[in-house]
Write a structure and sequence with these properties.
By secondary structure, the chain is mostly helical. It is 68% helix and 0% strand.
Amino acid sequence: MDIDLARQISSLEHGPTDGDVSNMDAASSLASLQNARSVIAAVERNPGIRAQFGSARWLRLVDILQQLAYEDPDAGGEVDIALWCERQWATQLQNDADNETALQGLGHAWLMKSQRTLARIYHEQGSSSTDTSSSSLSHNGPRTRATNNRDTARVNSEDYVEARDLLRPALESLDRAIEVSDMQGTASGELLALATEAYISFGNVSHPRDNETYYQTALRLLRRASQIQGYELVPHLEQ
């Protein structure tokens, strides 16, 4: 690995946010995206570079790149970087189908891919794409044939169908990650919170006659996450 590439990787791993891209300013974000594309290009030219990483470090780097790709998920993210990360998760799972980190990473990727569609839906409803408050989990009250027909038409609309199609593989990967982590005793608050968000989102784009099951699963996962020592729920899940 040449010095420039090593420097770029180190910048991504230990840069101004120490691998956390959530609080980067615009200049840091641009520089990190440039580094990310340079690293990806180098790996594509020479796949042997990956062998110079331990598995855990490599997957951590992929996770950092995926965070960069989806710094603004409502806008669709940086598609080229995001797709590359998906391929890395898939490659890892081909070699190790029960790799918890890769399962979580792939589930997170699908959840992030759904955000643009969810944002359109929530915008039309006059609410935020991050609105997963407890009010979202309330019962829908008495239903009439007219409201049922309206809800049926709504959930069969293009955006709702697309959102569910993107969220299903997110749920599948995250469910499997939880299953694996439960067998190993390694379930993290982050994983449980991601699954919570995926289930809430799926419930939000499902028919009211079906969504209670998804909301109840989300609440169960949320309770588990909140009980993990040292893990702090993100604000919108605390509500």
